[in-house]
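Appendix B, Record 12. Input sequence as logged:
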Amino acid sequence: MEHKMVKQKFFGIVCLMLCVPAALWAQAKVGTSSAPFLGISVGPRAAAMGGAFSAVASDASSLYWNPGGISRLEKSNVMVTHTQWLLDTDFNWAGVVLNVGGGNALGLSVTQLDYGDEEVTDELNQEGTGARWSASDLAVALSYARTMTDRFSIGGSFKYIEQKIWNERASAVAFDVGLVFVTQFNELRLGMSISNFGADMKYDGKDLLKRIDTDPTNSGNNETIVAALKTENWPLPLFFRVGLAYDVIRSAKTKVTLAADALRPSDNTGVLNAGTEIAIQDLLFLRGGYKSLFRDDSEEGLTYGVGLKYNTGAAGIITIDFAYADFGLLDNTKLFSLGLNF
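Logged structural output:
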């Protein structure tokens, strides 16, 4: 009876996740959302597989791709990643998943995109005023997941999001929810997630404060009234993912996994991401994939990478991963990560 109720809840959640995006994403609205850094791929393993990771969800980067998968990790896991992102920017992510027992897991992750800084110039100081300005993006998320049965797990994240440029900043809170279901068909895995469901963002800061004269034709009025320039509200980019992962070869020495994700963002057209991972002796991992299939004029495409795993014994298992992603006219990106299972 309990297993039947879990299955009914699972299919109810699936129906809800399928129906809601259909209503929200009737049209693609390119470039109309805030915080685009939330769409940058996290972790070289997932990136090397073309972003097809919502059903794989088997390391700490699942906190980004599908929080429902973190309770299925056999051990606690910590991961730190660095990406040489586009136009000389740096994208960093760190996450930790704690297996607290009883099919429960807790997670914490921090995402940061650093745009660097530049000299401040104006019409009178073309060589610089001596001050510097900078811009950065930040997201901090707390996650929880539970394995309901040996085949079904569900989880979610609560996140704080902030964007800053010089003296102006915008912030919002949002939620992610995800689930993983292991079918009875040769352990075929299904993953689904919705990310960044939350409030709009609006910039505010001292540079938007201006002194104005509300009636310049009247010489007797106050000419130094402080007013604030109004900025628009912008929604967060909402991502809906549905993915499949299947081990086509599973032996003592080799495992070959095929994965595919259908991604539908709120601010662009839908795409299909596909990838594979070949595990040799559970020590060496070769990965490849292709991102943004079926999107017109996409600069994304081929991805590939490699990973190493080393068991230190009492200290835990160390993982090192690298990925390369082609961005066409925008050159390429390189991702690195260091992880520890304990």
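Residues 2-24 form the longest helix (23 residues).
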